[in-house]
């Protein structure tokens, strides 16, 4: 009788290991954080930058497109810095609590001039606010060739 119980326990453990054994040794891919779109993301303090990319047809002038979620209860001022042909260039964004869309069709936009890059490359952009340590992201430079990006390039200057 005891042998039958022991055999049942061993069989049950064997079946459990055989059917779920992969989870014991293989990492779960669903736990990996990744950017599922064309842009890149980062978390800086209470600010979550999501899907950041630059739309530029000539590599000289472009528009920063990004969604930023401000998880704090306060409006935060985010500094955006990059190296242009004129030297270090700064921009500021006022981020209210919640979701903030940044781009040419949104309430706030960052037009980047003097980029000296080419579409298809990665361009370093530094983001920082308040006393929180900032982060430099390698932001993809895209063209407006895709229909969804057609309206995102900077307006031609007169």
UniProtKB/TrEMBL annotation:
Keyword Signal: yes
PROSITE patterns attached to this UniProt entry: PROKAR_LIPOPROTEIN
Keywords (A to Z) from UniProt: Signal
Signal peptide segment: 1-18
Name this protein carries in UniProt: DNA modification methylase
Source organism per UniProt: Rathayibacter rubneri
């Amino acid at each position: 009788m005891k042998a039958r119980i022991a055999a049942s326990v061993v069989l049950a453990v064997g079946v459990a290991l055989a059917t779920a054994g992969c989870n014991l040794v293989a990492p779960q891919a669903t736990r990996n954080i990744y950017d599922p779109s064309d842009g890149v993301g980062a978390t800086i303090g209470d600010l979550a930058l999501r899907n950041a990319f630059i739309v530029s047809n000539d590599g000289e002038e472009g528009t920063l497109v990004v969604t930023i979620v401000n998880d704090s209860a306060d409006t935060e001022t985010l500094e955006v810095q990059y190296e242009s042909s004129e030297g270090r260039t700064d921009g500021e964004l006022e981020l209210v609590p919640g979701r903030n869309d940044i781009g040419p069709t949104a309430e706030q936009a960052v037009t980047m001039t003097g980029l000296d890059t080419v579409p298809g490359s990665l361009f370093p952009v530094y983001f920082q606010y308040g006393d929180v340590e900032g982060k430099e992201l390698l932001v993809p430079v895209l063209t407006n060739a895709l229909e969804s990006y057609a309206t995102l390039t900077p307006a031609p200057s007169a």
